Amino acid sequence: MWNDHDTLAFESLCADGIAFYPGLLSEDRCGALLEAVSWARANPSPSYRRLSPDGAPALDSDLFRWRDVPEIRDFVTDDTMLRLASAYLSTDDPIILEDQWFWSEAGSSTDSPWHQDDPYHPLDRPFLTIWVPLTPVPAGLGLRGVAGSHEATTFAPVEFSAGESTLSTEASSLGTVPDIDGRPDLYRVIDPAGGKGDAVLLDSRTLHAAGGFCADDFVRLSIRYADPATVRRGRSWPTATFWDAYDWADGDSLPSVDFPRASALVASKERA
């Protein structure tokens, strides 16, 4: 059922491309998902990447763990998550595009420079990201975004990894992200400053950043939802390397086995 938090988040998301949703997850739910991510980290998939330099405290990440981790599978089909995704994408049955966890060990630097999620994906329309910290958020390390940037310029993707590349090529037809922090007169930055269990919602075109030094482990989980009408659109810039694993042509729909509609996952849970 739609509530006041839903309404405020939806209106902010439409207006600014970023929204805050306090208390999306309870303490117990954060704990259960943290255990699930810990297991996933100890049992990495082919999409696993260590993003920090060799020898430094680890910052690592993995994708698509709804496929084999029941707690993450339950989370991506959570009623509130699907309600928000359905409203923003104007569909009653969003596609589960991907989940991604990030784990920053104590002593690591979690710099995530200003970027947009959209250009990393060879898709013809924007998608929705819901980002939730599963541990307390170190001061100043929460997700922040540039208001209105979802309706402005698309910039070249940036490489996050200090080791194995996460981008398909270095060539790009797009310009680089401007100096957001250096021009407060030009860019209105929204910093929700939330805590464990509070969510930030992002249009995939919204410029956003996070990061800094972590005194303690910092774990967060992102879920991305797409419109079921989404199709492949070739890009003249680098995209995320995991897309190279899919054999599809421009104009093709997302492969339904790998990117199912929410209703299919809900039905499979009910049958289990």
Explained architecture:
The chain has 272 residues and is of the alpha+beta class. The chain has five helices and eleven strands; from the N terminus they run αβαββααββββββββα. It has helices at residues 4-16, 27-42, 70-76, 79-89, 262-271; strands spanning 18-21, 49-50, 59-63, 95-104, 112-115, 128-133, 144-146, 189-190, 199-203, 208-210, 218-226. It has a seven-stranded antiparallel beta sheet with strand order 1-9-6-11-4-3-2, covered by helices on one side. Strands 5-10-7-8 form a four-stranded antiparallel beta sheet, with no helix packed on it. Helix 1 packs parallel to helix 4 and helix 2 (27-42) crosses helix 3. The radius of gyration is 18 Å and the shape is globular.
Total strands: 11
Helix content: 10-25%
**β content, as a range?**
15-25%
Low-pLDDT parts are none
Query: What order do the helices and strands follow?
Result: HEHEEHHEEEEEEEEH
| Widest beta sheet: strand line-up | 1-9-6-11-4-3-2
Radius of gyration: 18 Å
Mean pLDDT: 89
Distance between the termini: 25 Å
Structural class: alpha+beta
Q: Can you summarize the main beta sheet?
A: 7 strands, antiparallel
* Coarse morphology: globular
How many helix segments?
5
